[in-house]
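Appendix B. Raw example, untouched.
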Amino acid sequence: MVTPASSGPTPAQRVRQAVEPAVTAAGLVLEDVAVKPAGRRTVVRVVVDLDDDALGSLDLDTVGEVSRDVSAALDAADPVKGEYVLEVSTPGTDRPLTELRHFRRARTRLVRLTLRDGSVVTGRLAEADADGYVLDPAPDGVATRTTLAPADVVRGQVEVELTRLADTGHDAPHDPMNDDEEGDA
């Protein structure tokens, strides 16, 4: 049987090779790259995130800066033929938690985990490492601190909270999006 010769890297792989150094230099992680045709153009989607140990989320200024760096890297390497539209974003809260790094990034957040036995547990993710995911009590969630083996978790999702963590008694990184307009007068 004859196997076809490799046609080389895919467009997404070429984009990843071109932009990863710029993303890494910005102190971020390249989460995903997608290259899709859209009419006469191509849409290049680059998803970046903070590193595993960081809490909080990327601010718009940082996303803007890394977008410029990614654009310059693409212009220099020219991995996409023809016209393209570049979209640089973060994973967002709707990203499923599928890898250890996703769980590490979700620390301090309210999470909903589906277990291998079909049960669902909710709690505030306190710790995440290869040995286990530690959930602290949360309203309508676990009643006591609970540790789950990663092998027992089949699906995870961050729950969107409409109240600030500080209001629930948990420490949270400063989020300028939650500052009051009036300030402290």
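End of appendix B.
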